[in-house]
């Protein structure tokens, strides 16, 4: 009797071992696959999500607090500050605006140094560039009304070309592609512009320098701003006459009305010599023209790229359909 029980126990132990062996091997296979390729496969060959043990080893990252993005936020703050000082203080505005533009090169370096390149950061950088330049061009439109249509055209081309280029890259190359990856076969000029950091920096920097020079000339050059030679006038003089009631509140002193008579007088007091702005405008004008030409090329190439994709999609869909007789 004891011998039978012994044999039965041995048989049960062998069956249990046989059932445990495939399970262990499968687990080992998934574990090995997870260590090697972070993915496993089930018995049907379908991909299996990796175990949670590996994801637990990686700390949670808040990409909105990455250093490049923090630099991007500081650029926005500086740009807003420059816009506030723009109607009255050309020197302060130019300094703040220039620092905001120069930080554009620093955030890219920080992204590579800290290995914190993100899609959000790339879009934030592009949106900040477009908005700051557009705001400056809007002011130039009011400062030089006769040339307002030119500045409006520059804003339109800038926005249209970058939007079209970004959309074409995402639609034709996938969401993982960068808008800076331009193939030479499409445009060697755009490839040079986006891949050569020196060319990119010089074009963007001198483009902004030209518009800053025009902004300074609106305060310093009677040739471009004849209103600088106009007399004050009785209406404005009466508004700032001696004995007039003055709002001495702290908020009014910090946030002055840019359209008040006192503000206009402050703008006249901040008038500067036009020699240096004219030199800046003359040096940067050719590069600014090249940058606008690149925007047009970018717009045309992106439009053609999207057109090629539409033609292929229509062919795959069997369009246009052949008309039956």
If you had to describe this structure to a student in words, what would you say it looks like?
The chain has 325 residues and is mostly helical. It contains twelve helices and two strands; from the N terminus they run αββααααααααααα. A two-stranded antiparallel ribbon has the order 1-2. A hairpin with a 5-residue loop joins β1 (40-41) and β2. It starts with a helix and ends in a 9-residue tail after the last helix. The model is unreliable at 21-39 (pLDDT under 50).
Layout: helices, strands, pairs:
Blueprint: H1 2-37, E1 40-41, E2 47-48, H2 52-57, H3 67-85, H4 90-113, H5 119-143, H6 148-173, H7 188-195, H8 197-220, H9 234-239, H10 250-254, H11 261-269, H12 275-316
Antiparallel strand pairs: 1-2
Helix pairs in contact: 3-4, 3-5, 4-8, 5-6, 5-8, 6-12, 7-8, 8-12
Keywords:
325 residues; single chain; mainly alpha; 12 helices; two-stranded antiparallel sheet
Give a quick precis of the structure.
The chain is an all-alpha fold and 325 residues long. The protein has helices at 2-37, 52-57, 67-85, 90-113, 119-143, 148-173, 188-195, 197-220, 234-239, 250-254, 261-269, 275-316, and strands at residues 40-41, 47-48. A two-stranded antiparallel ribbon has the order 1-2.
């Amino acid at each position: 009797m004891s011998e039978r029980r012994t044999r039965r126990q041995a048989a049960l132990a062998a069956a249990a071992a046989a059932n445990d062996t495939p399970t262990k091997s499968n687990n080992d296979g998934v574990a090995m696959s997870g260590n090697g390729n972070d993915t496993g496969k089930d018995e049907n060959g379908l991909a299996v999500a990796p175990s949670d043990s590996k994801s637990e080893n990686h700390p949670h990252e808040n990409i909105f607090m990455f250093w490049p993005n923090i630099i991007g936020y500081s650029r926005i703050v500086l740009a807003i500050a420059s816009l506030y000082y723009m109607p009255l203080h050309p020197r302060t505005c130019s300094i703040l605006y220039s620092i905001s533009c120069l930080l554009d090169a620093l955030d890219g370096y920080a992204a590579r140094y800290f290995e914190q390149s993100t899609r959000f950061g790339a879009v934030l950088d592009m949106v900040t560039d477009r908005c700051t330049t557009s705001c400056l061009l809007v002011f130039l439109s009011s400062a030089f009304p006769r040339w307002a249509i030119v500045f409006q055209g520059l804003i339109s081309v800038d926005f249209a070309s970058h939007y079209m280029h970004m959309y074409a890259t995402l639609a034709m190359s996938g969401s993982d592609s960068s808008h800076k990856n331009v193939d030479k076969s499409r445009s060697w000029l755009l490839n040079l512009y986006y891949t050569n950091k020196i060319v990119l920096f010089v074009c963007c920097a001198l483009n902004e320098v030209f518009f800053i020079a025009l902004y300074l000339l609106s305060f310093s050059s009677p040739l471009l701003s004849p209103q600088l030679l106009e007399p004050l006038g009785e209406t404005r003089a009466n508004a700032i006459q001696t004995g007039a009631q003055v709002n001495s509140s702290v908020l009014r002193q910090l946030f002055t009305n840019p359209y008040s008579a006192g503000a206009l007088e402050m703008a006249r007091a901040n008038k500067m010599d036009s020699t240096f702005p004219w030199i800046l405008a003359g040096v940067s004008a050719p590069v600014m023209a090249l940058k606008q030409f690149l925007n047009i090329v970018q717009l045309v190439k992106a439009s053609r790229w999207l057109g090629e994709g539409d033609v292929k999609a229509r062919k795959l869909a069997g369009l246009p359909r052949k008309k039956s007789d």
